[in-house]
Amino acid sequence: MRKALALLFIVLFAIIATESFYIFQNFYFKKDIIREKIIPKPLLSYTFENLKNTKFPQNQITLGSVISEDEDSFSQIFYFSTPKTPGSEKMEKVSGLINIPKIEGEYPVIVMFRGFIPQDTYKPGAGTQPSAEEISKNGFITLASDFLGFGESASPSANPFEGRFQTYTTALTLLSSLPTLNKGLDSDYVGTISADLENVGLWGHSNGGHIALSVLAISGVTYPTVLWAPVSKSFPYSILYYTDELDDQGKAMRKSLSDFEELYDTQLFSPEKYYRWIKAPIQVHQGTGDQEIPYWWTDELVETLEGNGVDAAYFKYQGADHNLQPNGWSEAVTNTINFYKQEFSL
Q1: Residue 241: band (very low, low, confident or very high) from pLDDT cuts 50, 70, 90
Q2: How many domains in the chain?
Q3: Which of 105, 148, 250, 304 lies 20 to 30 Å (CA to CA) from residue 183?
Q4: b/e string for 45-69 if b means 16 or more Cβ within 10 A?
Q5: pTM of the model
Q6: Are strands 141-145 and 105-113 parallel, antiparallel or unpaired?
Q7: Which three-class secondary structure state does DSSP give residue 141?
């Protein structure tokens, strides 16, 4: 009897021990699955696919103080708001510079995107204003956003990659808000100056060209677009290429990128993968002496655009630098203005 009880005890103990082992193992296995599933990936909202399916709000464009004027036009601060994150109801203030012709009339609108400028040297209109003044005096209203962190705008995200992606959402929100521009102009110009919102174009230089290409792909708009020495390579190569210019030779940027790539597929954020979505006619300008944008990058961009059925005109300026100096700037401005007038049938 005692032997039978002992044997039964041993069998029950073995069963309980086995079940406990499986329960214990299963608990930690499930715990690992749960931990894997709840890793937050908030920047997925900035993939090109997701931005393409995001509705960007229409926010009122208002005018602020006049910064300068000449015999042809006013240069004036403007403001609008952009979502803090795609689809968010929390809005952030953005400032920019608008150039408005002085003569009474209705004028096409050119939205301009600048290249990289350090915050400590930035002022509204930097990177766009010389071209904007010439474009405006030839019968156009120009708007150039400062972007978050610049001018009187709110601060960008502390995450450097989200801060970069916020340039897309800011630009897309500005385009969505253009229908409010005439109400903003009315407050200062009482119906004497108005925007022809049937004729809107884009202009981008350097990283502003990268923003313009991204906006064209995401939005699908057919706005005639001019690109000067655009950054056109894939992300993140498009930023790693410039890390030697940083004080730490790009060490911090590479660490941030390594962290980013642990969570995200960079191709989902790379404009080059989505150039096939672009439908707008484009005019491209490139100096062969450019030390920031190798001219063969732009050669390849134009070839890719044309291969995707985009109407792309290409001008190269022998020996000209990143700003198309010393021998290309004036010709590029003239070609730019003529392109807009031709596209808008002016």
Answers
A1: confident
A2: 2
A3: 148
A4: bbbbeebeebebbebebbbbeebee
A5: 0.87
A6: parallel
A7: strand
